[in-house]
Structures are given as C-alpha cells and as structure tokens.
C-alpha cells in the first residue's frame, strides 16, 4: 500500500455540496493516476460518472440511512475484462489499496467530518462487486476514525 500524501490529493466539491453540511445525498468518487500517484476525490450529490474509465478502478461511496442509522456504503468493481485471473488480481489490489482510498476520502472531506465528528464512528460497509461468487462480497471495514490522519489540524 502506498502511504497517503495530502499534497497528492485533489478534491472537487460539485455544485450543490457544502463542505460542512449535507449528509444525504453525499457521494464520493475516488480515482487516481498510476503515472503520478495523484488521488482525486469528487464530493457530490451523485457520482462523478465523467471520471470513471473503462478500467473501472474507482472507489464509489455514499452516505445512507438504514434502520435509523447512518453508514457509508463503498463500492468497487472487482471483475476484470480478461477473466478470473485478472479478477483475482484486481480483488487483491483493491483490498491492499482500500485503506489509502478511505483515508483520502476522510481527509478530503475533513471539514465535513470536523463539523460532524460523530460520523467518525459510523460503519463503513464495502461491496466488492463481481459476477463470481468467490469475489462478490459485502464486508464491514470498520469506522472512519481508523482512517483519520492524526495531524489533520495542521493540514487544513
């Protein structure tokens, strides 16, 4: 896993999103550049479909309220276009890099989390989407507090 570097994160707040307010609908579209290592997070009321490429290596996330409780649902597209071997590799990469993605989302929207600090204790549910049962999983990935940078106060 790569180490998170705040200077390599670029955040775009779409129209209709206020940095410190509005939980539902609030979505995250996280992409990256293999060449530069830059991370891109779009915060919006819908996913930023323009950022999604045929490679499908983005991380999508949305706040939802179910049974009166908030949670963050995260979606990754595990299947590759070249069969089960590529799907296995993509699954491994997503699992290795997901903590970096969650840290980038948490850091990129840190003003929102500072104003709504109770959200650091909300469950993160990750959906590994695949047509193969072996890789089609729904898992609890903890809470956002685990993905918080401890020096955030110095990096606002």
Automatic annotation (TrEMBL):
Domain of life: Bacteria
Residue ranges of every copy of the Staygreen protein domain listed in the record: 3-147
Pfam assignment, any one: Staygreen
Cross-referenced InterPro entries: Staygreen
Keywords from the UniProt entry: Transit peptide
PANTHER family xref list: LP06106P (PTHR31750:SF4), PROTEIN STAY-GREEN 1, CHLOROPLASTIC-RELATED (PTHR31750)
Name under which the protein is recorded: Staygreen protein
Source organism of the structure: Clostridium gasigenes
